[in-house]
Specification:
mainly alpha; disordered C terminus
Length: 413
């Protein structure tokens, strides 16, 4: 088996770039959730289109799995030199504080807009907040997503999931640092050729076959066993891969092969769905889905390592912007919808303006307010800004920042 080597203590620009570029697609995806026909979301457009289901479905099969793998890569860097309680303390502040703030300040408008649209909440955002924040009265059933709990985290579900997976690794850090844990890491990072393209699929296929029929995706932290199995497996893959050079070089070498296989799988999967006139089922369909998931992620990582691992001028700005954008973007989409929908601008101009309003809103709030205020920075997952001493400013080699995340209740397949 090929020996593994470790990356030097430098920033992984390709991981930073993939995170930032992926988030641009997140905004498009969540705008698409407003327009895709037959998929539930907080609000739905009168211009909903069935054709959007195909690109949205193919994206939805791997998008969050990629995010959790990147999160695991980040933890691989962050965990060097940190013990269990150091990781729990630093990750808890960076993940849980934005979650609590977001649930209290950013997310409520999403619940309000959905409740008004459903006819189960009276107009008046102030009155809604007075009832929502203290959780004094129960809400009508299905008034908004999460109404049964009184409050909701909506798209911020990624933060508690990430903290839970980080806590699992942190609390078992001695296991992963033991001889047996290092053996498992070396075995995974030593995969080459077809083994790297196929063997990581086997656990994903096992979880899909055993758990998916009994535990459909819910984004309920304590009952989402199927998605937990997939996401934590990908998170663990990333944790193992983070500081290794050999596996990243192999993904880069295999990037064209994996891309060709992904295109073939897309064609096969679409043909099966069309032939079955609905979601394909059975072991063959599960195998195709999980193989497509891993090969797509492997292709993205391989091409990213080849083309993006350089200090792009925009990366420093993107690294500080992506977390606030994640917290803000879905509420800004809902605000944009409430402003644009009454104008009846049509199925082309309206979504274009909605994307533009969301991006401009994220940029204006982040660059104009959040990044400038040490009071707001921790509430959006950013470190406090400290004035650098003259002659001591150096290029940043710090560990990767917290990862963005996103949510959609769309079907996984």
């Amino acid at each position: 088996m090929t020996a593994t080597t470790h990356l030097p203590n430098t920033r992984r620009h390709d991981i930073d770039a993939l995170r930032a570029l992926a988030f641009l697609f997140v905004i498009l995806y969540h705008v698409g959730m407003y327009y895709v026909a037959d998929w539930p979301w907080h609000l739905k457009s009168p211009y909903a289109a069935e054709w959007l289901q195909w690109p949205m479905r193919m994206l939805n099969l791997w998008r969050m799995d990629l995010v959790f793998l990147i999160s695991g890569v980040s933890l691989g860097f962050l965990s060097r030199g940190q013990g269990t309680w150091g990781l729990l303390r630093s990750r808890g502040v960076r993940l849980m504080l934005p979650l609590v703030f977001g649930m209290a300040v950013i997310v409520p408008y999403q619940a309000y807009a959905q409740g008004v649209a459903n006819g189960m909440v009276a107009p008046g955002f102030g009155a809604f907040l007075l009832r929502y924040l203290p959780m004094a009265e129960p809400w009508p059933k299905r008034a908004f997503d999460g109404a049964e709990f009184g409050v909701t985290w909506n798209h911020l579900w990624y933060l508690p999931y990430l903290f839970a997976y980080t806590a699992v690794i942190a609390l078992t850090l001695s296991l992963w640092n033991s001889a047996a844990g290092q053996w498992m890491r070396r075995r995974f990072n030593g995969l080459r050729g077809w083994q790297l393209l196929l063997l990581p699929v086997l656990p994903l296929l096992a979880w899909t076959t055993l758990l998916a029929p009994h535990f459909p995706p819910t984004h309920n932290l304590v009952r989402d066993f199927y998605l937990h199995s997939l996401y934590f497996t990908m998170f663990l893959y990333g944790y193992w891969m983070g500081v290794d050079t050999g596996v990243w070089q192999e993904l880069e070498r295999l990037r064209r092969v994996s891309l060709a296989l992904v295109l073939a799988l897309i064609a096969t999967y679409i043909a099966l769905r069309v032939g079955a006139k609905g979601p394909a089922s059975g072991l063959l369909a599960d195998a195709l889905r999980t193989l497509y998931l891993w090969l797509t992620v492997a292709t993205i990582l391989g091409h990213g390592h080849r083309h993006l691992n350089r200090p792009w001028p925009w990366l420093r700005w993107a690294n500080e912007s992506v977390y606030p954008w994640y917290v803000l973007h879905q509420t800004l989409i809902i605000v944009g919808v409430t402003l644009l929908a009454p104008l009846a601008l049509g199925p082309v101009l309206e979504p274009a303006l909605l994307v533009a309003l969301t991006i401009v809103g994220c940029w204006a709030l982040t660059d104009g307010l959040i990044r400038r205020s040490n009071w707001l920075r921790p509430l959006f997952g950013l470190k406090l800004r400290r004035r650098a001493k003259p002659m001591q400013q150096q290029a940043s080699t710090e560990a990767l920042p917290p990862e963005p995340g996103w949510r959609s209740p769309s079907p996984r397949a």
